[in-house]
Amino acid sequence: MPEEELFKTEETHTRAEIAETLRAAAEQIESGTVRLENGTEERDVTVPEDPLFEVELERLTDSETGEERYELEYEIRWTQ
């Protein structure tokens, strides 16, 4: 299935800022409508009542430098 990226933002923030963003997102998810915004675009999305929720922690190693990084992802999925 081909992917189409509809929205993306990636910025460095403090833990406190990230936590506040996640709290605000949780309130929007609970209401059923989430507004995604970055400096140049915004998008509203309706989250269904029973989507799939996935939490994933990965350790990734750069094959050239050996440097390790971690990714903690919270993902909500559904079909239309």
Short key terms for the protein model shown above:
80 residues; alpha+beta; two-stranded antiparallel ribbon; two-stranded antiparallel sheet; 21% helix; globular
Short note summarizing the structure:
By secondary structure, this protein is of the alpha+beta class. Strands 1-2 form a two-stranded antiparallel ribbon. It has a two-stranded antiparallel ribbon with strand order 3-4.
Textual characterization of the structure:
The protein is of the alpha+beta class and 80 residues long. It has one domain. It has 1 helix and 4 strands, in the order αββββ. The strands form 2 sheets. The chain has a two-stranded antiparallel sheet. Strands 3-4 form a two-stranded antiparallel sheet. β3 and β4 form a beta hairpin. The chain is globular and about 45 Å long. The chain starts with 14 loop residues before the first helix and ends with a strand.
Low-pLDDT segments, ≥5 res: none
Number of helices: 1
| Element string (H = helix, E = strand) | HEEEE
| Net shape | globular
In terms of structural class, how would the helical and strand content be classed?
Answer: alpha+beta
Total number of beta strands: 4
Strand percent estimate? 35-45%
Mean pLDDT level: 95
Distance between the termini: 14 Å
Instruction: Enumerate the strands of the largest sheet in spatial order, edge to edge or round the barrel.
Output: 1-2
Number of domains: 1
Specify Rg, calculated over alpha carbons: 15 Å
Helix/strand layout:
Layout (H helix, E strand, L loop, with lengths): L14 H17 L1 E5 L4 E5 L5 E10 L6 E10 L3
Antiparallel strand pairs: 1-2, 3-4
